[in-house]
Every structure is written in C-alpha cells, then in structure tokens.
## 1
Amino acid sequence: MIAVVDYGAGNLFSVANALEHLAIPYQITQDPGALAASDGILLPGVGAFPDAMEMLQKRQLVEILRKMAKEKPFLGVCLGMQVLFSQGEEFRLTDGLDLLPGRVEKLKAPGLKIPHMGWNRLELARDDCLLTRGLPQDAYVYFVHSYAAVPRQENLVAWAEYGGQVPALVWDGACCYGAQFHPEKSGETGLMILRNFADLCQDAARRKKE
Amino acid sequence: MLAKRIIPCLDVRNGMVVKGINFEGIKEVGDPVECAVAYDRQGADEICFLDITATHEGRKTMADVVRRTAKKVFVPLTVGGGVRTVEDYRDILRAGADKVSVNSAAIRDPELIRQVAAKFGSQCVVVAVDAKRRPDGGWGVFINGGRIDTGLDVLEWVCRCEQLGAGEILLTSMDADGTKQGFDLPLTDAVCRAVKIPVIASGGCGKLSDFSEVFEKTGADAALAASLFHYRELTVGQVKDHLQKSGIPVRK
C-alpha cells in the first residue's frame, strides 16, 4: 500500500487517479500511523514552496516524513519534489525537508518563457536509477514550474533542456526520489515511472518481511 | 527543448460531444470520455473540452465528464465554456481539469483573471480570444461566436491578460475558422510577439502543412483543432509524423 500524503495539495486526486488506473493499492492519508505502516510514500504538490511547508508543519508531518524518506521508498512530485531540498527561495527563504542538499531557485532560462510549461524530453544523467527502468529513448514528460532545484550532480538522475539543464528527476542514492514533472499527466511515460515506483515499494516491503 | 503541442478540441453539450456548423444543425455524436481516450491514444498532448451548454445544469454535467475523463486520460485537460466565477473555476479544477479557459467573462470583468490566477496559479488560467480582422487594420476581440464586437484591440487585450496573470492565450481567428485554408499567420505572429506567455493557435487548419507552417512562421507553442480530428480527416499521429519530418520537436 502506497500512502499518498494528504496535506491540501492540488494534484492529489490526479495522482490518485493514475495509481487507481494502474491498479496500485494506495491510501490518501495524513495519519502518522498509516504513513509508518505504508510500503512507500508519495508526496504530491502544486503551488508555492512556503505554503506547502506551512501546510506540512500545520499537520505535524515534517518530522515523520523526514524519517520515512530514509526508511522506505519516497517520491515527491513537482512541488513535493522541491520541498525535499534544504531550502526554497520562492517569495522568501524557507526551510524544506532537507532530504537532498541544495536550494530551489527561480528558473533561469534567458529568452525563454517562464513557467517552463509543456512536454520536454528527459535526458538521463545516470542509468542506475530504477525509476527510469524501461523508459523509451525519447521519453517526453509534462512540466509546469517557475522554480527549479539546484541539486548536487550526484543527486541528478535526469534533466530537461530549457535554457540549461533543468533537473527533472533527483535521487538521494538510497530510497528518496523526486520528479519535477507531473508523472500523473505525462501519458504512458509518466505511468511507467509511477509503476516503477510501486515496484520499488513492493520490493522494499518484501525485503522487510524476509 | 519544449515539444510543440497538438490539442484536439471537443465541443460538449449536455454531456455529449456535438458537431454542427455555426451552432446550427447541431448533432450529438458521441461520448466525450470515449473521444478523449481515443485522442489520447493518437498522441494528443492535451485535450480541450468546450462546454457549449453554458447553463448551470450543463456545467454540472461538464464537471462529471471531466471527472470521468481524468480517471482514464493522463495528459493535461483544458475545459472552457460558460465559466463566469471563481467558484466555476474551482469546481472544474476539482473535477480534475488542469486548466480552465475563460472568454467573455474575462472581458466583462478582467479582474476575474487576476482573482483566479492568485487563487489557483497562472498555469491553469487560459484566456480564449476570438479575433477578427478590422477593415482599418489590426484585429478586434469578438464574443458570441464572432457576432459581437467588444471594441477591444486584440494585441492590447492579450497584453492586459498577461499582466493580470493569464498563463496562456488560446487564440482563434474568426476569419480563418472553418475555411481550412491554414492558420491565420499574421494574427498568430502578432500575438506571439506581443506576449511572453504560451499561445495556442486555433482556426483554419485543413491539411498537414498548415501545422508545420504555423510553427515555422510564428512563435505558436501549440495548435488546436476540432473538426479536422473529429471527422478523422487527419489523426493527431499523422500531424506529429509530419511535424517530426519537418524538424519540429514533438512528443512521440
């Protein structure tokens, strides 16, 4: 069972629709017990960095999410990916969940439109991340964002070209992942990434039992 | 680099896809959910529903159509038609739409653009603009299917929309619409130069080269078509094959 964190994020139901379509068992929850009992955690998010952190704090989810992301597969989507980083610069400097080192800064794409909105091609920075398993060579995914993470090179799994390398998939090298794009709106490619994440959760749960 | 988007549009009335010419002789021709799924399979980058019921009951039906579509189609959904208030916006977004397009209500009350952009984010605010060439030069903004001249200048209006927080312009040329002679290149080019937000070109496409032309000769980010796809004169796949051969980036 994947826990989809319910903290008022706008794309919660789109993510749930995609999991439903893939017949992946999930639960929409903000209950610490349910989060602890889950096989993996999906953190959705649309909107602004400080609002998201405030909503997580209000529900007292910050500490438990930080703990869970080190124990079991954890995927942050869009703003849910951005808050994995140490700090965000949107509106004001705000502390994030600090699971990945780096800041989230205003997207720099000279001469290009901001937000970075639309379908862009994933370019793999490394090929050992299980989330990208089986992806076609020309994998396009759907982005909508004005801020972007500045991760360490070793945390970068895939990027998209938009006035530079825009981080698309990040990973702490253990079990914490983030997708800047919307897998739930990225057609077959996005569904494949969610399926890969569900497989990771299942494998982790099986290992734990053994 | 961003791919150029191909967006099929479905006209929906009372929960059914309808087709007709100039709102006359309208026939119900199918289930919008089924049509959206078919377009998704063809490779549509986004699907647009235009609600032509424009009554309270009709909008409720539309929300249900969106809800059912969002369970089966995993590309962005844009919904337009009859949206008048912040509450209308919220209802459609909650049902699962990613963007909502607004037309005459924004002209009556431009503050609506600012309100919905502040509340839901610019990324979901599409302003639909129906443009018609004026005899004395330039283009005017029309409403009610091109019957009423609002007196607004298209280029001034799109700039105002951008300032108010619109995230995208859906630009329809009333002159080109239905002609199948190609997109209105001078209009599309002028609007793309006037704003920094994405522009969707609509109206006039009839053949493959119309699509490559609008992307080669203007800054359009996307092209929208209804009848062409609906009557299967072309599939989204054919259009994308053609664009790819022409060296235009598309999602395949």
## 2
Amino acid sequence: MTTSTRDVDTSAERTAETDAAADADPAADVRRGQRPWLRGRLAARRTRRVMLAAALAVAVLAGGLMLFGAYRLTSADSARNHALTDREATEEVSGEVGDALAKVFSYTPDGVRTTELDARRLLRGEAATQYRRLYGQLRKRVTEQKLTLTTRVVHTGVVSLDDHRARLLVFLDQTSTRDGGQPSTAAAQLAVTAERRGGEWRIVRLAAR
Amino acid sequence: MRERVRALVRPPKDPVLAAAVALLVAALCFAAWGGWSWHAAADDGARAYGESRDRALSAAEQGVQNLNTLDHRNVAQGLSTWQRSTTGELRKQLADGRGEFEKQVKAAKTVTRAKVLSAALYELDERAGRAGAVVAVRTTVNAPKQKPTTKDTRMRCELTRTSGGWKLSALAQVPVGDSAGESEPGTSDQDQGKE
C-alpha cells in the first residue's frame, strides 16, 4: 500500500463521515441555511429536551432532599436511642443488669466462690478488672469476719439503649452484716454501661454516682 | 432522497432521547424512594416518642437542679425559678411554704448548689403527659463559718406536660428500703436531712 492510496482512502472516509453527520444532525443543515422546513421540528425537539432535563433535575433534587430529610430524622440521637421507645428491650436490659448487680454485689461467707463465678460471667472489660481488684481484697475478710452483703435494686432507669450498648442509672440498697450482728443498709447509685455479648447483657463499666 | 425523507418523517430513533427517558424514569424512582423514606421517618411514632422522652428527661434534669439550688442573697429569684420548674401539687406546696422558707434561708445564710450526675426516665406516658425519672444529684451547701458540705442524693421525680413544657409535679429522695414504684414521691425536703 502506497502513501498516496492511503491518502485517498482517508479522504474518502472523511467524506462518508461528513455525509453521515449531516444525516444524523439535521440541525447542521439548518445552520447552513438548508432545509428550512425542519426548523419547527427542531425547535419542538429542543423544548422537549429542555423539559426532560428540567424534570430530571427536579426529580433528583426532590429525591435527594427527601432522603436527606429522612436521614436527619432517623439518625437523630433521640431516634437512635431506644430507651423506653422499645419497651421490651428496655425491660430486658433493666432486668438483666439489675439481676447481675444483685448477684455480683451480694456475698455470704460460704458463697464467695458463687459470687466470684457470677462476676466472672456477668462482668466484662473494665468492670471485671475493677471488680477483681476489689473483691480480691475483700474475699479473705468475708470468710474470716463472716461478712454478708445483700444488694437489692430499688430503681432502674435506662439512659440510652441501642442493639449493642446500654447506659443505665441504678439505685441500690446494700444491706451488710458482720458475724450475725445488726444489719445496716446503705444507699448506692451506680452508672452502669452494659454491652450485649452473644445475646446477653454484660456489664462493662461501673461508676458510683 | 425518498429514503432520507422517510427517515425524517418516522419518529426519530434518537439514542440521546432514549437515554434521557430512561434517566428520567430512574430519577422518578429515586424521588419516590426519597419521598417514601421521608414519610416513613416522619410518621414513625417511636421517633416522636423518643423526642418526647428526651424533652422530659432534660426537664427532669433541669428541674431537679433548680430545686436543689438556692442562694440566700437571691432567695426571691431562686424561689421564682422553683415555681417555674414545677406544676400541680408540688408547685402549690412550694408556693404555700414560700414565705416561711424564705425567712429560714435568709436567717441561715446558706448557698446551695446542685449538679446532676446522672438521670434517666423510667416511665413515659406520652398520651397522658406524665413521666417519671430517677436522678442522681450532688449538692454542695455553703453556710457562713462552716466548711462546705457535699452530698450525693438519689431522687425520684414525676413530670407532667404543661403548655409550657414538661415540669416537675413531684420530687422526693429515694430513701433506703424504698420499693420500686410502690410509694408516690412527695415534695422534696430542702434541708435534705434524711439518710
């Protein structure tokens, strides 16, 4: 193939392209002053396109705004917090956390092992570490001095609750006796953080309030 | 020429137009989805209930703090705040005891400040406009020629919704040995001499 043939081929292709473009785009004809009878059709098509674009823009904008609105409503703190709004879950976490507190903060001279096992099961993380330190010191005295502690939940309020995490305020009454002596009861207020592990609530943080 | 005319008379097979129509259909679907989501979110009863809960809780926190705060140099203003934070029976009791109380505080020259440590609602009846909350509060009392004393108290309060928002209708310390929900809280003792 020679250079000149290629030139001829290319020019032929170009002509074909120009023709095809003229066919596909009658507007070009109009611009060139040819086929003035097409003008009305083209104007109509342009209007249609503008309207389409406008409808498209409006639909996308409206959809976007409404989605954003829905997101703002559902992602608000008050919507994400299921305390009381999900009554069943609220009662479940209150019950489980209350039971757990009553168990780990109750002991008898003969039952130190039971309390320890309960604590190992019901407390996790920071709460477990804290409890081990405290109970480690106390354990010997419980058997030696025959100490008894009974903890009772007086009030529970759920501050926040979602599927995995809950914060509660718990009022406790703690009655202690030493070797069969006169029992004395003290009030305690605890801020409790619990996490759901394997379908059950476990206490991960405890703070006196 | 005839071919060309036919091509122009026939509805144009415009790929741009076809794409635009498809795009429009997609956009309309998107808008419908947005509308549906928005409506579902706005219509969610749990969401409205949750907002009510948060309003009642912040009213409980503010109310308990207000009713545990009083400065002898500014008793009238403090007691007016008490009145504004309360409603119903509690408001009436506070109003009845106001004169006597003002005298006592002025004589004792005490400044009482409160900080809510933690609070939670334990019940909310949105329809009846009633709520109950537990509040852990720390109060510090300054009296002349005495060291300031700090005390942590646990309290239970009831709230009632009024035209001016949620207000305290009952407030009491939770005494040791109290049973959950069995006794109605009365009014608070300002001196908080219990425990």
## 3
Amino acid sequence: MIDRTELWIVIIGLALGSFALRFFFIGFVGGRALPEWLLRHLRYASVAIIPALVAPLVLWPAATEGTPDPARLAAAAVTLTLGVLTKNVVLSILGGAVVLALGLMLGA
Amino acid sequence: MGATTPISSFGAGARDSLPFILVAGPFGLLFGVLGTEAGLNVAEVLGFSLAVFAGAAQFTALQLLQENTPTVIVLISALAVNLRVAMYSAALTPYLGGAPLWQRAIAAYFIVDQSAALSTVKFETEPQMPLAHRVAYFFGTSALIAPLWYAMSWLGAVAGSRLPLDSGLDFALPIAFLAMIGPALRTPAHRVAALVAAGTALAAAGLPFNLGLIVAGLAGMMAGAQAELWFERRKAAAG
C-alpha cells in the first residue's frame, strides 16, 4: 500500500518540479541561448528514461513473480513494433492489448 | 482567410487539437484506473492529474510508488521523464516570450506534448501571426485536451474501483509506455539512447533504491548525445 504522506510529497513535488521545468525557459531564460551540450543531452531524456523503466517490467513482470512470460513478451513486442511502424500510439496500445488478452487466454 | 481575431485563433488551436482527444482520453482513463488499482482514492487521482498534468511522469511516479521506491528517486525519475517539457518551453520562448509574465506563467502549466507540437508548427508556418493571436492559439490547443485529461482521470478512478481485478491489467502501463516509445524513436541517435538505456537498466537492476533507473537514464542520454555527434560527423564527412 502506498504511504499517504509519501504520495502527497510526490504529487506536490512533481507539480512544483514540472512547473519549474515548464516555466524555466519561457519565464526566465527568454531569448538567451543554452549551451549546446546541455540541449543535446536533454533531447534524449524521455527516450532514455522510459525504456529504462519499461525493460525490467517487460522481462521480469511482477505479476509472474519475475518469471519471463510469453504473453507479456509478445504483447510488448507487438506494441513496440506497431509504434515504430505506424507512429500511432492508440493503435499500438490496442494491438498490444489484443495480443496480451489472446496470450493470457491461450496460456490459462 | 485565416484567423483575424485572437478568439478565432483560440478556436483554431482547439480545432487543431481534436485528433489528440484519441490520445489524451484513453491515457487519462488508464491513469485513473491504474491509480485506483494502486490504492489511490478518486480525490488523489484527480489531484495528481490537476497538479502535475503530465501523463508519462504521472505513470512513472505511480509505478515507482508501488515498488516502494524512496521518495527522492520517485521524484528524480518522474521529473527526468518530464525533462522534455523544458525543451518545449525553450522551443516556445521565441514565439511567446514577449507576452506578459502572468500569461507566460499560466501558459507554462499547459506545456505538454500536444500543445507544444501544434503551436511550434503553427508559429513556424505563420511567422506573421501577432503575439496576442499566438497566445490565444496556444491556449486553444489545451482548451479541450486539459479538461478531457482531468475528466477521464476522474472517470477512470470512479470506474476503476468497480472493475474486477483483471489478470492482464498489471501490464497496461508497460504497454502504454512502449506505445509512446515507438513514435519517439525518430532518429538513429534516439534509437541508440533507448537501447543503451534499456540494456543498462537490465544490467543495473540489482542496484538498491531503484538507482539503476537513474544510472540507465543518464547512460541513455549520454549515448544519445554522443550518437548524435557521431552521425553528424559521418554525414559531414560523406558530404
């Protein structure tokens, strides 16, 4: 169970932190240029953090106590492939959900 | 002809945002459902969506909170996922930087993927657009999407508490994230960043406090930046 104090610290911290990130340039920096090396790293932040978060969840799902699961692996592969090929987020989610449902049905 | 008053620019922004209803709606619903599954009540789910207003960061925080991750790591990880809004803020500054501070402060809250993407394209293609129209257009792009995000989070939270515990629901979050990764792998450097980050995360999974995620994220960012330089040099050399 998530601790209530921790939850609200995270909600308020994220709210303030996200606002700071959003306000920083438009509010403070204005037209001044940032160092190129910093921008170059910022460009890859979300495309690095999200795969880092997802990879262990795909390979070692908590629902199977960390044992790799064919249905979840197949659903992940289909979702990612659809996303790369179609660039359509909604279609990718639907494709992955269908494969997961089928896989869990076959496996059960 | 095109927009002639700030109100029509506002309307144009709202109209251009219509396709994003298909993204924000289901994502908001999913956040509500998963939040409820994680033990949040309706007020906490809605508070989360209202205060933070950033889908991927909210999902990240929710996942890590369930893994008993130290609060500092939850915050750093979720803010790292959200670093791209700082990039959007930088991209919008040349167009909206001249607006009064109070307008920029409100606009900052609404900087998300869809408002930034729509606005930067619009402002680039219509450089003659007056500042007041630009501000109106920017707010227009969130006029439908933001209320929809709150409403669907709320609906998901209300419905989620009545849903039976489905065996596959645990995997809804990885699927949502994977679906976001696909379209983001725009260049070879983006693909290098994602691969290095995923590989490092698996190798560093044993680190305490979920620190592996931070290490992997930094490794991915550095790999992406270096790959970008490398591909640029190769392109320059090929002339």
## 4
Amino acid sequence: MKKFIFIFLVLTSVPFLFGGNLPVKDSPVAILIRAMKDVTFKKGDADWAAAKIGTTLNTSDEVKTGEQSIALIKFTDNSVIKVRENSSLKIYADKNKQSISKNTYVEKGTVGFNVSKQENEEFKFTTPTMVASIRGTEGFIGVLNDTSSILVVTQGLVNVLASLGLQQAGSVGAGQFAVATNNGSITISNLTVQLQNQANNIQQVTTRKVIIRTNLFNLTIEYLPAP
Amino acid sequence: MYNVLRTFCRISFLLGLLFIVNADIANAQISNTISKINFGPAIEAEDVKVDVELLQNQQITSINFFYRHSGITDYKQVEMELMGMNARCVIPGEDVALPYVEYYVVVTTPAGEDVYPGLSVEPLKLIVQAGSPKDKEILIMSPEKNSNVALDEFFVSISLLRATDAVDKAKTKIYIDGNDVTSMAVFADDIIIYVPENFGQKISMNGHLLKVEIYDLQGNLYHTIQSSFTIVQKEVIEFAEGAFRYRGEVNAESRREDIRSVDTWYNNIRINADASFKTWSFNSNVYVTSEEKKYLQPNNRYYANIKSSWLDLNFGDHNPRFPSLIMNGKRVRGVDGGIYLGFFNLDFATGQIARPVEGVLDSLIQDKTAFASNIVDIDSAKFGAPKGRLANFGTYERNLIAIRPSFGKGQNFQWGFTYLHAKDEPKSIDFSAKPKENLVLGTDLMLGIDDQRILFTAQGAFNLINNDISTGTFSDTALKSFIKGIDSTMLKDFDDYKKYRDMASQFMTINQFIGPLNPQELPTAAADMALQLNYFNNFLKVSYQYKGNEYQSFGNSFLRNDIAGITVYDRLRLLENKLFVSVSYESLSDNLQNTKFATTNFNNLNTSLSYYPRTDLPNIVISYGKITTENGLNLTSPVIVDTATKLPDPRRVNLIVNDNTAKYFMQLGYDFFFKYKHQTSFSVNYSDRQDESPSDYDVKSLNINLGASTTWTEKFVSSFGLVISQTDLKGTPFNYTTISLAGRYYMMNDKLVLNSSINPSFGDFQRIYADFYAQYFWLRNLSLMFQTRLISNSASGTMPASNDLIVGLSSRYTF
C-alpha cells in the first residue's frame, strides 16, 4: 500500500515539485527524433496515438514503446534519452528563461541516457523505487518486474535515492551499478561484463531493414539486430 | 552611425591597401627554405594544424616548430614531420590561448640552422579566436552536425531554448543549401521544425549545408550558424554504425630540384588508411621517401594505431606524451600506448629514439697516448690500431623505455608515477665516443574541483645521467681504485660499496661518469606546479617552475634547464567574449647551483587587448611587452676586473648582460562584402632592444604586413600581400620589401584548378620566386598535380646570383 501511495504522490506531485515556474503546457520541451515500429504517445487526456519522427512532446506527455521498438527523444537542450522496447515513461520539464530542468518518470522498461554537463539545470529520472540525478553522464536506468530499479553508469557520477522504506542514498560512479529495492535499500556494485555489454547495446540504436520485393508489393521489415 | 562606421571601414580598407589575403601572405618572410606557413582554424583550446611549405628541401635534416602562448616565456618545441615539400605538426589545444600564439621555425641542414622569420626578427604571431557565446543560443537538434541521415528520417529541428530575450524567435530563418525554407517550417515556441516530406519536397542523396539565422527585436541579424550533414540510404547508416568502415588516401610525388646548380631528384609516396569497427578504430600511415639515407636519422615513417575507449596502442613512429618534464615531443620507433580503466591507467613506451649512424674515420693512429678532441679509441683487433682520428662522430643507437602507472580518471583527480630509462648501445657503431645513459623518475598530480574551474597540477622529476658508458660498470678493481682516489679510508667499507654497485647496476651503468656529483644541491631535479582559477569570466593561472642545471631527460631534449621562478597569467573576458584583456608576468632566474659567474634575471611583462566585434567591423589585437634581462655585472664588478691590471678584462666583458626590449604589436583583421567578398588584415610589429652592456648590440625591428584576398566569382580568387621589414642591427640597416600576388582559378567544371603566385623581394634582400601549379581531377577521387617553382636569387655577400628551379608531379587517390 505504501508503495502505491508513493507512486501516486510521485505522479501527482512531480509537476509541482518544479516550483515557481509552472511549465507552459503548449510549449514543447522535446521532440521525437526516431521512432521505430510500435511507438505511441499520449497528450493529456487524449487517446494514445502513433508517434512519428518530428512529434513534439510537452510536459506531462507520455511515450510508450512495444515489442522490438525504440524511441529517441531529444530535449530542447539537446540531451537525448533512448527508450528501449516495452517501456513506458512520462516527461516532465520546467523551462526557466534559457534553461530547462527535466524529470522523466520511467514506469516500466529501460531508458538509456547520454547527458552532457549543464549549468543550473538538472536531469532527473524517477522510477517507482528510485530517484537519480544525473549530470554529464552516460548509462541506463531500468525498472524490473518487481518494480525494483537498476541504474548503470558507464561515464560520470550519479546521485541516487531510494524512494521507499529505508530511503538509502548513494553515489554511483563510472563502471558501477545500483539496485534500489522495494524496501528502500540501495546496493552499489561494480559492473559485470554482462551489464557493460547491455549498456553498450542500449546506446546502439541502429536498426536493420529487410525488404522483400514481389511483383505486387514490397514488404519491409525493420528490426533491432540481436546484441 | 553604425552604418557610417561600417562603410568607412570598408572603403578605407579597400583604398588604403589591398589587405592581407590570409595569414599565409602576412607571414611571408625571407628564408632560404620556407615559402610560407599555413594554419588550420585557430580557435581557443582547440588543436591547430600547422603546415610549413618549403621552397626546397635539399639537405634538410630536421624542422622544429617552436611556439608559446602569451602566458609563458619558454617556447615549446615539436619536431615536424617532413613530407616532400611540406612539414606538418599540430599545436595541442591546451597551448592555444588568447590572444595569440607566438611561433618560429628552425630548419636544420648540415650547413647550419635557418631560423624563420630570422634571428633578429620578432617571432610571428598566430591570432587565436574565441568561440562565440552566441553559438550556444542556437541548438540544432536534428540533423546533427556532420552526421549521416537516412533519407526517410530526415527533418530539421532547431531549438532556441538558449536564445536570449534580445532574440525575436519568430524572425528566425532556415536555409538548406542557400534556399530559404522558413515558410515551410513550423514554429512551436522554442522549437522550429521543418519536415520536407509534408510539403512534397525532396532532398537529394548527398552533402548539404544547413544555415540558421536569428534576428534581434529590431530585425537586425543577431547570429548565424551553419552545419553540414549528408543524406544517405538507411543501409549506408547501418553499414557505417554497425560494420567495418574504412577510408584511405595515397599520395605519390616525383620532384626534381635544381638548387644552386645541384640537381636532386626526390620521390616519395604516402599511404594513409583509417578504419573502424563498432567502438574500435584503426589508423595507419606509411611514408617512404628517397630522402631516407643510412647516414641520417630516419625520414621514412611507419605508423599504425588501434584504439578503443580503454586501450590505445601505437606501433612504429610515434610521439608518445608523458608528463612534460620527462617525455614530450620525442619520436619513438617502437610500441607505445596505454590501458585506461579509470581508477587505474598504464601508459608505456618502448623503442628506438636514435638509430645508429656510423662516424667517418679520417685516419688510424698507432700511438696509444695520442690525444685530441677528434681522436677516439677504436677496436684494435678489427682495425689494427688502438685509436682513430674521426672526420665525423657517429650517432649511437639509443633505446628508451618509459612506464607511467596512474590512479584516477583525470577529471577530478589523477596521480601518476613515471619511470624512464634510455641508453646508447656502445657496440652499435665503431666510430664515435662517449655513449650515454639516462634514468628519470617522476611523479605528477592533478586535482580538479568544480568542473576543473579550480585546477591544481604538479609534477616533479629527478634524473641520473652517465656521460660515458663505454667502459661499462666498475669492475672490483676499478671500484677500489676509484674509492681510493676519493678517500682511502673508505676502503674499509668496500664490501658495502660492492653491494651497492651490484644493486644499482641493475638499473644503470655505474662508473666514474655518473652524475649528479652534487646531489644535495638538486642539480638534476625539476618540478613545476600550477594553480588555475576560472571564475567570473576571469582566468587566472599562477605557476612555479624549477629545473636544475643538470636536469636532463632523453625523452624531452628541448627543456630549458638551470631556471626557476614564477609566472602569473590573467585573462578577463568582457562584453560576451568580444573583448579580452590579458596580462602575464614572469620572473625567472638561472645559476641555481652557482655554476656561473653571476645570476641572470629574466623579467617578462606582456599585456594585450583583443576585440572581436563579430559584426561587420574589424577585429583588433593590440599588445605591449617588455623583457628585461640582467645579471648585475658591470665594468667594475670583481668578476670583470683583471686583478693584475685593475682594468676590465676584455675576455670577460661579454659576461655582462643588461638589456631591455620593448615590443609593440597591432593587428586589424576585417572580412567584409563590398561588391565582392574580401578578407583583409593589417599588422604592425615593432621591437626595440636596448643593450646596455659593453656589447651594445641594439636591435630595432619593424615589420608591416598588409594583404587582401578577394573572391571575384566562385571560380576565381585573387590575393595581394605586402611585407615591409626594417631592421637595424647595431647601426647596420637591413631593409627589404616583399610583394605577393596570387590567383586561383577553377575551370572545366572544377576539374582543373590553376594556381599561381609571384613574390618579388627588393632592398637589402633581393629575390623573386614564382609558383605555378595545376591540379586536374581525373575522377572524383583521383587527381594529378603539376607544380613548378622558379627562384631567382640575387648575389648576396659571398653567394653568387643563381636561378633555382623545382618541377614536380604528384598524384592523389582516395578510397
């Protein structure tokens, strides 16, 4: 119950946590620069719709990817997140003059990030069990089936805070990963070869295409190459 | 008012001169070997490519490029790669600082050194540009700069998130290949999107140029940025990102030089190849030339590199970089590289830094006691005599090994330890003397706080040197004799000394030629440390250096030793990076181990003001410098006065050092459009050295450079340059004027490029040299170039007049 209350609070309070400068709803904060296969988005109360390249995203918009699908989202400060297959997230951003603070709520799935150092701006990822503040880092964040979260850092340093229970905190450096569990504990360890490979694959977003040409039609199949 | 000023500037520049074509012509100074120096873009903190074009390259054994920025006194040196009629190197970004980098070039031939622009002339200045802060106000979200974009994924997206309130975002204009597509773009607050497909537009499958202009609230152009991208098939991207990629280039040249009636034929070929696979990259370079001679150090170059995020391996000829006190700029033929794991890293280098070159024997000498500076011991069994008189000393093969383990990634912290050992191989040649050995130990530390806005760096090193290892390590008998010579009572501990010798000889040859002899005075120690603060648009760096008079590392032959002191450098950025004020002061002293008659103090003050308006007004750099060098001696100093005659000893008066040099520099640079596109520049460089010592070697030097380059059409570019040089060497004038006229013309649908120039010099230096070259592109990736150069030298001193001719043919193929 405690967990659901927390999720509810996160979902409802994030927009307000950004404080004094309430975001302008009509002002786009990000754009979809690549959408492969099943990528949908949702604006406010509207229905889910198929997303295509060039779709603009405002604060509170949601993006979802299906099986073997990828979405690349670029914020107006040029930072990029890579939404891998079977993922779902909600974007929150607060523009203040020439800067933008971003908080991406990852409900499920895996999201890769590659963010350059920026002054006076923050980039946060929130999951049901973790809040990660990143600055000049590369890696990925994932929500596991039991809603515990994993954060892998290949470059830079990330501060993490467990959202539930013990609410442990820590810093995850390059070559390390952290797991935040439902009881609020955080375990930080060195990367395994498997996780390092996974991190490399998540940054790789090139897809392959097979075109079957017939006399009547051409069938194009786009797919993600196996890691 | 602004328009009036702008018009005035344009007209005055056009009428007053046909200004500097480019920096190349401005730098056209007299030299027997160097034609001109070309630089890549000089942007603060970015590497700058240097390309020296040679008039001829007969007998050149090496070319060294010396440079420094205004914050330091010592010049850094890098050995240039000699490639046919060009020599190339790179100034590392860390040394590219505002407002300019001073430089000169030394060409070494068997006849001596040719210093460009001349020993009595102020070093040349390469003006460094600051990046525009306005660049950050326009973010190109898609397509990324220099990227390959799949045809079905192409769209343009611009973010004006960072644009200031002075910008009217709605007035933004977008151009693709010069075509205005703004009317088809969608403006959504900070984001502007243009999707050609939505308007039935198609973009071709090749390279394109995106230009974005933003305007201020009054409708004036505020800033422009450009970005290139290439449209390709998606399969190409898949291939490029996921598979093996490669590119290569082959250049071959054949050239005949007739210099002062000496005919020489040169042939060379250069092959470059790059490849990458996923996160790995490979690079190779082979240069083979007919200038490769057994009696010289290598001119051929062989290089291969393999690199990933954690591994870097170089094979062949490479210049590995270690802490600068120990190894920097030295070519090693062998293997070097490093493993970079972040918390632990390991750099290493091993190979040959000098290859054996045999000396020239003049005559054999049977007298074992014969002694002269050119008489050396030789292998009597081999040559039938114990000694030989040499016409030329040979060069021993010298091998080196260096290792540097370090801890920390280097973003906030790194601590390293370096070991270097270099040794001559005494048996590598027969005719030379005094093979040497060098051992250096050092440590370096880097601490960075707040994104390196506060940065502390320090390094220290200590070396041992053995100046003659031909006799090897002491035998027991020799050691006993040596100790006895110092103090016979020490022989009671002889067994201990033997133990120490055995232990130390594992690392170094131990004999009577090892130094330092006075280690307590730190003659072979060196250290430097620096603290830099970068806050409030102000960059401050305070550094201290100490280099003992015998400090020497075979990994860095160019260090100035016997020097200590502080340097302070401060640079203030004002008006959004348009105005820069910098001041540097250095106070150094030598004679650290009291090995000289007097201590010389070097004080160097440099100030500069640079203004880069980034509008249609000229850039301006003004600087003033003052160098004072004195050692406190005068004609009445006891060191100078002969004790017998009580008068100044004529042989010692030249020990007196007391001179003041004032330096003034101004440069205007102005690129503008008036009927046609013009690039212009004008600079004045004046220095006045007042020598207060009895030598009275006063030198006054004035250099004025003017030039202009005009693009008349897309096919035709012309340029004009003028150099006026007036030098007064202790009352003897040396004045000359050089005019440069050049043109470039593209014809046959750009398949043929014609380029020619004529550069006459008048006055005390008289010469005319003319260039012509034609390049024809058979295919897009295959071209042939014919080049000819005529140099007409007037008689000068003992040198008779001569007409020199260089004719060459070269080809270039890329794949």
